[in-house]
């Protein structure tokens, strides 16, 4: 049995569809998870107006499945240099947040929507910076060509899905943010440090795969 066979079974589309939310929530999003999960004292005003956004959690269906990430360029005004999923803020012309995730993926990485099969959705996530994000889980078939947007994307890389699903590789770190101590999930894979909302979405994904 190959190292990735068990992982491939866990992300088979019929099983994956049963573990995820089958339909996206209605808009505007009402996040059930957020930066405040590990920092309840930081829970924001529930009435605040959140910017609607979506990201694609792209699972590449290789012999050993992996997840594709981007690292943002260092000159951006928000989250400069951080590792993230492809995605961003919804545009007025987007028909849905699924379209937002697929459009942003194409713009940032060059991957066309035709390579992506949407498997379902994770819990909407609220960031301390005022975004409500819908994580769209997609199976990404091989054959795509990467043409990253040099203005936004410094690097595109993959991490084995098995590594990210293993609880032993899940870390919990803390740092000061706006004068207060903030805790967050994190993963370290080689030179890559994945933390914050992106790491929290990976934890949510692992929990859903592990659930009965």
How would you describe this protein?
The protein has 212 residues and is α+β, with helices and mostly antiparallel strands. The chain has a domain at 5-25 and 48-160: Alpha-Beta Complex (Nucleoside Triphosphate Pyrophosphohydrolase). It is 22% helix and 33% strand. The chain has helices at residues 5-10, 13-19, 97-109, 161-165, 196-210, and strands at 33-34, 51-60, 66-72, 83-84, 87-89, 116-121, 125-126, 131-140, 153-160, 171-177, 180-189, 192-195. The strands form two sheets. Strands 1, 2, 3, 4, 5, 6, 7, 8 and 9 form a nine-stranded mixed β-sheet that branches. Strands 10-11-12 form a three-stranded antiparallel β-sheet. The protein starts with a helix and ends with a helix.
CATH architectural designation of the domain at 5-25 and 48-160: Alpha-Beta Complex
Radius of gyration: 16 Å
Strand content: 25-35%
Q: From the helix content, strand content and strand pairing, which structural class follows?
A: alpha+beta
Taking the alpha carbons of the first and last residues, their distance comes to 24 Å
Order of helix and strand elements from N to C terminus: HHEEEEEHEEEEHEEEH
Round the mean pLDDT to the nearest integer and report it.
92
Helix content: 10-25%
Low-pLDDT segments: none
Q: Based on CA inertia axes, which overall geometry fits?
A: globular
Brief write-up:
With 212 residues, this protein is of the alpha+beta class. It has 5 helices and 12 strands.
Question: What are its keywords?
Answer:
single chain; Nucleoside Triphosphate Pyrophosphohydrolase; nine-stranded mixed sheet; alpha+beta; globular; 5 helices; 12 strands; three-stranded antiparallel sheet; 212 residues; 33% strand; 22% helix
